[in-house]
Design a protein that fits this description.
Length: 150
C-alpha cells in the first residue's frame, strides 16, 4: 500500500468543496488515514513548494496557499499516488478532464483547488512536513476485501 499527501487548498475550503473531495476519495476506495484543517505559514508554504522556488508564479503561490484554511490529508491505498493524481486531474483546470476534481470545479491554474503528491518520494516528504507519525491512524475499511483482488 502507498500513502500520499492530499490537500484541499484555500479556494476549495472557501468554495465549500471539502466534502466533495472527501467523497470522491472515499468512493474510489482510498482510505483517509490522517486529516486536519489548518492554516499554512510562510515557512511551511516555502518548504512544501520548494521545487518551484525561482519560478515566476512562486510568490503568488505562497501568498495564495497561506491565505486561508486548507484541509490536509494522508490517503492510503494501492498505487495511491497515481490514483489520487488521476482523481485530481491536470494542473491547469482548463485542461483537466471532466470527472476530475479540477476538471469539474476549476478554471484558472492558480486556483486549482487541490494538491496531490506527484511521486512516492514527494509523498513521503510532504507527509512528514504536515503530519507526525502519531497523527497517522491505522484501521481497516470493511470493503477492503472487495476492493483488492489480493
Ligand atoms: P501540481 O499541483 O499539479 O503538482 P505543480 O507543477 O507542482 O502542479 O505546481 C504547483 C502549483 O503551482 C499548481 O497546483 C498551481 O496551483 C501552481 N502553478 C503551477 N504552474 C503555474 C503557472 O504557470 N501559473 C500559476 N500557477 C501555477
Ligand atoms: Mg506538484
Amino acid at each position: 500500500m502507498e500513502q500520499t499527501f492530499l490537500m484541499v487548498k484555500p479556494d476549495g475550503t472557501a468554495r465549500g468543496i471539502v466534502g466533495e473531495v472527501i467523497s470522491r476519495i472515499e468512493a474510489k476506495g482510498l482510505k483517509i488515514v490522517a486529516m486536519k484543517m489548518m492554516e499554512i505559514d510562510e515557512g511551511l508554504a516555502k518548504r512544501h513548494y520548494g521545487e518551484h522556488e525561482g519560478k515566476p508564479f512562486f510568490a503568488d503561490l505562497v501568498s495564495f496557499i497561506t491565505s486561508g484554511p486548507v484541509v490536509a490529508m494522508v490517503v492510503e491505498g494501492r498505487e495511491a499516488v497515481n490514483v489520487c493524481r488521476a482523481l485530481i486531474g491536470a494542473t491547469d483546470p482548463k485542461e483537466a478532464g471532466p470527472g476530475t476534481i479540477r476538471g469539474d470545479f476549476g478554471i484558472d491554474v492558480g486556483r486549482n483547488l487541490v494538491h496531490g503528491s506527484d511521486s512516492l518520494a514527494s509523498a513521503e516528504r510532504e507527509i512528514s512536513l504536515f503530519f507526525t507519525p502519531e497523527e497517522i491512524i491505522e484501521y481497516k475499511r470493511t470493503d477492503e476485501d472487495w476492493l483488492y483482488e489480493n
